[in-house]
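Dear H.,

Thanks for agreeing to be a second pair of eyes. The structure we're designing against is below in token form, covering all 265 positions.
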């Protein structure tokens, strides 16, 4: 690989602003899908997180002050999406705003009669096209149990989706991927999932995925990393497409992690 100016600059950042090893290790141990990373993956994630934190300005709002552990937790989860890609996937914006808990957002929509309605709703996270990612720390912090819901993965998946414009569940694919295969896998799964949710089924995947194809992609990403076994069983074609896009196999990684945990016991 030719030594580019970008690589030189990145190297300078990595040398000048190393992560605090103890706080970083504590973060890796506090998320089940990070705990199972091998040494190489941990080093790579640490590298991305360092660069991520130097490029993005994360700050607290609503009375919240962010410490290193909180910044690391957000960076670690977000950078899992780009572990095998590049920080360039998070280009075009720089701000992360973190509230202590769910925050109120103003919403406006125009109905069929042309009347504009405004309301306020409580959100756990939000990603703006070309703008900030907004998070609730209560939802972004390490959780007590694994439920396939992860607001950081969700909002940063929207950022990847937005790379080619609108939030439509169709991020820019790699050259070795088929747009038709992606479309087919996601359309079939989305239709099936909406039917199941409309039919009142209690799904293992967050029913919020039925809101919109863009939300479907973000929620499938949460499941891909958090509960990959569930996604692989429910929608294997979607799992395969996401494995191609993220260039990762979280199910194999979790199985491997479980295996080594058994050996250690
Ligand atoms: Zn969303």
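And this is the sequence the design step returned. I haven't edited it by hand at all.
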């Amino acid at each position: 690989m030719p030594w580019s100016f970008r690589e030189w600059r990145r190297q300078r950042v990595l040398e000048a602003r190393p992560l605090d090893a103890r706080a970083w290790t504590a973060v890796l141990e506090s998320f089940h899908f990070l705990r199972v990373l091998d040494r190489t993956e941990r080093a790579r994630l640490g590298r991305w997180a360092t660069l991520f934190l130097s490029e993005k300005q994360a700050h607290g709002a609503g009375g919240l002050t962010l410490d290193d552990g909180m910044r690391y937790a957000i960076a670690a989860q977000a950078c899992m999406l780009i572990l095998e890609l590049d920080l360039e996937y998070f280009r075009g914006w720089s701000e992360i705003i973190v509230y202590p808990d769910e925050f109120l957002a103003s919403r406006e929509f125009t109905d069929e009669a042309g009347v504009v309605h405004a309301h306020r709703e409580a959100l756990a996270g939000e990603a703006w096209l070309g703008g900030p990612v907004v998070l609730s720390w209560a939802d972004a912090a390490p959780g007590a149990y694994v439920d396939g819901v992860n607001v950081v993965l969700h909002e940063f998946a929207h950022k990847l989706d937005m790379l080619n414009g609108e939030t439509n569940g169709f991020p820019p694919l790699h050259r070795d991927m088929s747009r038709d295969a992606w479309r087919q896998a996601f359309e079939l799964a989305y239709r099936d999932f909406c039917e199941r949710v409309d039919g009142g089924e209690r799904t293992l995947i967050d029913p919020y995925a039925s809101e919109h194809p863009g939300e479907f992609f973000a929620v499938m990403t949460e499941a891909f990393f958090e509960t990959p076994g569930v996604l692989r069983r429910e929608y294997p074609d979607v799992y395969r497409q996401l494995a191609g896009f993220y260039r990762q196999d979280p199910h194999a990684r979790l199985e491997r992690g479980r295996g080594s945990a058994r050996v250690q016991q």
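Two observations from my side: The first helix runs from residue 5 to 16. Residues 154, 158, 215, 218 surround zinc ion (CB under 6 Å).

Warmly,
E.
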